[in-house]
């Protein structure tokens, strides 16, 4: 039972912050209500981006200030708002209340829970949705890896904390899979220590509710939800909410960054975000540009992705890593939105249909994918083994196009082709099959050092699996040594060679 | 005729801060139906700008209130309106600026403050 004294105490506490000052209100009158956009007269003191409230309790955001009227986008139900209704300013900008209680929850961009549980009781910190990104002085170069658990990415296109790495490709090629795998893989940080744990924010923009439900279920099943916040603006939500969702996501991440923690935000996907903003702009009668997108579509994404940051030590050392996703149509990366976002981000992971359907999954195109942060975001351990593999793969690609002519190949070339084929096989990885860095190292090391050369290409994945299990079971010391992240010493490598030879004796094709 | 020109006409319809009937009659002759609608709308807005509405729960001591407010809003006409739901205090409406000094508003703010 709740004590009555406690109730009174709480009331007193609440009342102490209540001000009796007279309020100057700025009011206006609704003129038109079309497609979620209200045009109102009056409101001469309204600011750009300010929240306004209607008689029925719905709130809206000011997006256009004209000579004698203003345009407001609705952030809720607006069917019963009619001409002549009163609108008043609130003096507030859009913000979201963030606290630790939000972790594990599914919310909409305004902070309202969508998972059927009660709203967090604790009043969190109000984080502004629109904020200017941290300046040059507060930043530090990206220098800590954010491990995805995917061999191909961690070895060749490493993602650092504070980086913005675009995932781009046609629909159904596993873009979301890479992002979700990355979120799930952050559990290793939570458990093993070493690197700082990462709080994840998954922002679903304009997606089907059934797909969102699937992803949430997967996060729950893998217990990744324990450090993840899901922000949802589904295809059924108004365009205004879809437009705000990524900003809400980054505002949440900024709360954790300001505490000196590391955060990861996944924007799934920014193509639909651009669509939502295009819709809003067109009903606001802003001039349309290329592909009917408004003139500030570049700024829409650049100001969002600029908020991904690695702060220096004086600022607390927190970071926000951004993984935006862009869906292309028919492999066309030169469309408007893809080129925009490619130029904003620090690299891209390009997924290709041909690779996907020929069984190479994740279907990462090694030639066009890039990470502009590169080796700075790798541990010395991974760096020591990935360099050779990258070189071999590049040579393999060159060679493979020649080899198609079917002429006789000299033994050296044939060997290189064989190695390349096996390396490609080794980089295949099933969904939800994230590996720790030690196991990633083992896979890459074993193939680049030629131990898999006599294994048929079709058997490489079985070889890898059994090899991992063998080392884990018989030589746990090697795994411990490789988990440190520093370059393996001579002794470990010697032991590894011995162990591998021993395993190969027992491995039958 | 564009809106700007109609606005100019509306502003010209005044002599010494008073709407001039003669001028208005002259102007109206030259306007089409649609332009007339716009003209009336602008005139209404102009009239509204010259006026202060004071909403009070009871018509009581209006002269005192008027005397005080006329000092603050010089040159504006003060109109009184009665609305018992305000309970006590008053509300001053100056075009799109509203000064809330009523008990009803304070209670409502208190309610939402506690619920938040």
What does this structure look like?
The complex is a heterodimer of chains A (509) and B (116). With 509 residues, chain A is of the alpha/beta class. Chain A folds into 3 domains: 27-92, Elongation Factor Tu (Ef-tu), domain 3 (Beta Barrel), CATH 2.40.30.20; 97-378, Rossmann fold (3-Layer(aba) Sandwich); 382-506, ATP synthase alpha/beta chain, C-terminal domain (Lysin, Up-down Bundle), CATH 1.20.150. Chain A has helices spanning 4-16, 151-156, 175-185, 187-192, 209-221, 239-258, 270-283, 297-305, 336-344, 353-357, 380-403, 411-427, 437-448, 460-474, 476-482, 490-506, and strands at residues 23-34, 37-42, 50-54, 59-65, 70-74, 86-93, 95-98, 106-107, 125-128, 166-169, 198-205, 228-233, 262-268, 309-310, 319-327, 347-350, 370-371. In chain A, strands 8, 10, 11, 12, 13, 14, 15, 16 and 17 form a 9-stranded mixed sheet that branches. Chain A has a 6-stranded antiparallel beta barrel with strand order 1-2-5-4-3-6. In chain A, helix 8 runs parallel beside helix 9. Chain A is elongated. The model of chain A has no long low-confidence stretch (mean pLDDT 92). With 116 residues, chain B is α+β, with helices and mostly antiparallel strands. Chain B folds into 2 domains: 3-49; 51-115, no CATH class. Chain B has helices spanning 3-12, 21-29, 33-49, 62-72, 103-115, and strands at residues 14-15, 18-19, 51-56, 77-82, 89-94, 97-102. In chain B, strands 4-3-5-6 form a 4-stranded mixed sheet. In chain B, strands 1-2 form a two-stranded antiparallel ribbon. The radius of gyration of chain B is 19 Å and the shape is elongated. Chain A binds chain B through residues 11, 14-15, 17-18, 20, 22-28, 42-45, 88, and chain B through 95-101, 105-106, 109-110, 113-114. Strand 1 (23-34) of chain A pairs antiparallel with strand 6 of chain B, so a sheet runs across the interface.
